[in-house]
Amino acid sequence: MAENTKKKGFIGNILALPNDNPKKTIFVAALLCLVCSVLVSTSAVVLKPLQQINKANDIKKNILAVTGLLTDDADVDALFAQFETKVVNLDAGKYEDIDVTTYDQRKASSDPAQSVTLTAEQDIASIGSRAKLATIYLLKENGAVKQVVLPVHGYGLWSTLYGFISFDADFNTIGGLQFYEHAETPGLGGEVDNPKWRKQWQGKKAFNEQGELKIEVVRGFVDYKVAGAEHKVDGLSGATLTSVGVSNLVKYWLGENAFGPYLKNMRTEMGK
Ligand SMILES: Cc1cc2nc3c(=O)[nH]c(=O)nc-3n(C[C@H](O)[C@H](O)[C@H](O)COP(=O)(O)O)c2cc1C
User: Is there a domain that residue 14 lies in?
Assistant: First the structure.
């Protein structure tokens, strides 16, 4: 009998116990947990590079969408190759000479060394802090800028909305606004993704003739009989809080505490 116990070993002995034995129940449960955790962590490690590729691809698709270049059968990489990626020093309003392929603006925004904390007065987008440097995308044709894409983010009602806004070469006429990440309610705040609502942004002017930032999302509908309609976008019905959030985040990112100095420099450079 003693020899038999030795032969089976520890695992064999436990498994030979009756199914209602507490020792066997605990052992089987622990073994199952171990096997599952190994499976989950292995798949997380194995799938991480694929997830990163998908994430990068999604960003490219959103940049193409906000510039009107995305079609169903688009060769995303080929189209994205028309863009030049640059990093802007927001305070200086000028390009920063760093490696754009390794700079991660989202990571930088939560790194105290690479970000600035916003005062309550500055923080109309409710983001707390922002990176000192921002990644932007220039769509070029024969060496000349055709469109520029800027990253924007800010708080809506339930979530931080992350997206892109594009401008024509005058750095004032909006080409589009597109969010790629948010958790607003589908059918309410989630209507920020509705192509009909997004279309309204096309052609709106962010700044007036004097260079003052005027763009805003209004409550209700824009009155086209009243002056200044070219700076206004309809609010989302039943989603006033998300609409206010979008209005504020756009104003923040185009304002003097974010892309304002860069846009001003570029408008001057373009002679606009
Ligand atoms: C379940 C639920 C989800 C909601 N989701 C949103 C939302 O995503 N964005 C939003 O602005 N309001 C949302 N609201 C409505 C707000 O609570 C609030 O009533 C609304 O923003 C007021 O806008 P209105 O003046 O256009 O009706 C939601 C309400 C409920 C009950």
Answer: yes
